[in-house]
Amino acid sequence: MEKKRIWFAVIIAAAAVLLLFVYMQQKEKQVFGGSGVEVLVAASDIPRETPIQAGNLAIRKVPSGFVHPHAIYPDSRDVILGQPARYTLLKGQPILWSDIGKGEGGFSAALNPGERAMAIAVDEITGIAGSLKPNDRVDVLGTFESGGRTITKVILQNVTVIGVGTKVSSSENKDEAEMNMIGSMLQGAYSSVTVAVTPEEAEMLVLAQERGKLALVLRNPADLDVKENLPEVSLGSILETERRLNAQRKERQVERTEIIKGGVAEQNQ
């Protein structure tokens, strides 16, 4: 009987160790970006405008949480062979689609097929106090006069910011170009934000800017949810919501009072 208890304890302890090991592996993946994903990197320094050859490329595993959206995967290797490097690429540096091709890059290099770059005029308030940076995601709200009423409506959701301000760097080195872009952001408030949209969305934004005022709302980068059928907001709806909330608040705050009748206490709302 005693041996059975010992074996049972050993089995329980082994199971606990196994569960702890699995848990620690999962936590390690979360902390270090998840499982590895193979991407193409520069096997040696690649000068700007140099055609990329097979010997310039190597494969490296990168944690999935740290893979750049424009990373190039090994199955696209043949597509970039012979194409010029837009920037000087350093040995070991992951190669992005925006690194490939002629020209200085700029906003066009940050666009996916089917997207268009469009600038939205902002001020310190509508531009989120100068805190936006490339790759942020925002919602676009518009305020208009409609039928004698002033309304605010969510026009677009989950839109990618590809630039802030008007400066686009022409640096030969990609890292320097990105640092220059960040530096231009830190110099002060910007008057425009460039976003990636479809042609149909661009039409909506052009008309919205002409007929009303736009504002940007910053999203959590992990929040990709798009809400459907969001209602427009007017001053009347705000006041109605305020009245309803105030009424609910008063109901919760009503104090109970005791009324003494014939020596019996009764509670009254």
TrEMBL record:
Coiled-coil residues: none
A Pfam family it matches: RcpC
Domain of life: Bacteria
SAF domain span: 37-101
InterPro entries: Pilus_assmbl_Flp-typ_CpaB, RcpC_dom, SAF
Keyword entries, A-Z: Membrane, Transmembrane, Transmembrane helix
The name this protein goes by in its record: Flp pilus assembly protein CpaB
